Amino acid sequence: MSVQQFSAMDRTTINWASGTSTELFIHPAKASFAERNFQFRISTATVEAEESTFTFFEGVTRHLMILKGNLELIHEGHYTKHLKPYEQDIFSGEWKTRSKGKVTDFNLMLKEGATGLLRHQRLDGNTSVKLTASTDYYFIYLTSGLITFQDGKLANAGDFLYLKKDSELILYAKRASDLVLIEVSCSK
Hints:
Structural class: mainly beta
Low-confidence stretches: none
Mean pLDDT: 94
Radius of gyration: 16 Å
Helix content: under 10%
Largest sheet: 7 strands, antiparallel
Number of strands: 17
Number of helices: 0
Strand content: over 45%
Shape: globular
């Protein structure tokens, strides 16, 4: 099968100082977020404090996309950026970063040997899109709506799909839906 579907029951959620973090995928499979021995990690998080300080991640490039709420990111000594839903920032996990605002966000963390990107795609109800997995790892996270794929299977908000490299998938939105498309390539 060219598509794997993961529901919310397939996830681990941990608490952190200002909210929660829910891991969607980690590579390699036996890697541990706590041990920081991953090549890449995909997660969602809630920021429940009005102000928070980001965890230091040595050697990690962070892609952060807002799903709900508004966030001000303050990268001390670099720049400040204001993010609304589906806007993103890419920054070093080694930067001293603070934030202001309560949000739900989407995270892609990459270490040496991994490159990637996040992209938002909105589908109006009763429309379809054909996606092709042209990278080593290609994922689809449904943030809102309801879609069908591959022989009528349903995906609800919060579902996470993994599409094998060089596979194609047609998604049909039964109602207006928002997707986060995640592409990752690994050189190791």
